[in-house]
């Protein structure tokens, strides 16, 4: 028997149960992975609360790294003993061992550790497509990134600097502000002390930014639109404060013919070619040291509920992982 986190109903962290599971052999196109580390992400909270529905009972977690223990019929790109990592559905990464579709796995280079991979795959590949593909940024561009001291934000601060992009980050404390600056943010706004929209206008001499990357949602949406220059791009990629409220397309027109997108990693890595290219780009900056992953919280698998409570209350910085053994 193996251990895993399961939930039979939606709700608070208390719905997460640490249980025994029987993991059978992999089916056709599947691989059995023994996890060495598991990523924790805000999307896991969306599934736990029911904001993102899924059939119940079910597991949680879309990111992990470990070793291949068995391969099913038809699997050719990974073999038993390979070090692998992934960031993909279906949910179920909160487990010591799991079976999953082999198409989601990429082979992990030796110079990248399991913990780094588990913390970086979903967040790092998200930053990769947001900076390289969702917006066509060029050196000297200025962007606004909300939650700059979170796991995704700290990776973005570093990667933006590599690209020569000026990143203005928002944070909720002076400690988090220092962390974002340390990781490469050009300017940081503590939104508990300053109006971030007004401050962005000051920092850009009234011009506004080319792109806003907003994973907060409801609380920051209107202010984020007001930070954009004409023809700017609003990238809404999360709902930490709740879903973005309905709005009329005229809101984009009146602010300067703005563009709006709601992207997700699933679509940007839907083909094998895109998945491997995105992972290869991420592994490159990790291996070179240009981007470092700040794993500031480690929890045992059985403490997943505490991990969720601390992430949800914004008591964490950088990345958080679960250790299954």
UniProtKB/TrEMBL annotation:
GO cellular component: cytosol
Molecular-function annotations in GO: mRNA 3'-UTR AU-rich region binding; NADPH binding; quinone reductase (NADPH) activity; zinc ion binding
Annotated ranges, domain Enoyl reductase (ER): 11-322
Classification via Gene3D superfamilies: Medium-chain alcohol dehydrogenases, catalytic domain, NAD(P)-binding Rossmann-like Domain
Domain of life: Bacteria
Keyword field: NADP, Oxidoreductase
Listed name of the protein: Quinone oxidoreductase
Organism: Pseudoduganella armeniaca
């Amino acid at each position: 028997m193996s251990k895993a986190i399961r939930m039979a109903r939606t709700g608070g962290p208390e719905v997460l149960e640490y249980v025994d599971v029987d993991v059978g052999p992999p089916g056709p196109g599947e691989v059995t992975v023994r996890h060495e580390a598991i990523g924790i992400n805000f999307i896991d909270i969306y599934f736990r609360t029911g904001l993102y529905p899924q059939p119940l009972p079910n597991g949680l977690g879309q990111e992990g790294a470990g070793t291949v223990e068995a391969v099913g019929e038809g699997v050719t790109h990974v073999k038993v003993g390979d070090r692998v990592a992934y960031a993909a559905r279906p949910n179920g990464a909160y487990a010591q061992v799991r079976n999953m579709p082999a198409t989601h796995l990429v082979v992990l280079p030796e110079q990248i550790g399991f913990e780094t991979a588990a913390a970086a795959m979903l967040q790092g590949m998200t930053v990769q497509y947001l900076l390289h593909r969702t917006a066509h940024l060029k050196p000297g561009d200025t962007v606004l990134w909300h939650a700059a001291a979170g796991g995704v934000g700290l990776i973005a601060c570093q990667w933006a600097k590599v690209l020569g992009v000026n990143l203005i980050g928002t944070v909720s404390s002076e400690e988090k502000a220092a962390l974002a600056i340390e990781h490469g943010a050009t300017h940081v706004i503590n939104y508990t002390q300053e109006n971030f929209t007004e401050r962005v206008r000051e920092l850009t001499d009234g011009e506004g930014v080319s792109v806003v990357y907003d994973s907060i949602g409801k609380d920051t949406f209107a202010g984020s639109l007001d930070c954009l220059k004409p023809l700017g791009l609003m990238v809404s990629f999360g709902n930490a404060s709740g879903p973005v409220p309905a709005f009329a397309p005229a809101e984009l027109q009146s602010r300067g013919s703005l563009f709006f997108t709601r992207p997700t990693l699933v679509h940007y890595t839907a083909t094998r070619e895109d998945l491997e290219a995105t992972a290869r780009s991420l592994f490159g900056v990790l291996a070179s040291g240009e981007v470092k992953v700040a794993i500031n919280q480690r929890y045992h698998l059985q403490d997943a509920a505490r991990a969720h409570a601390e992430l949800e209350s914004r008591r964490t910085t950088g990345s958080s992982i679960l250790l299954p053994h």
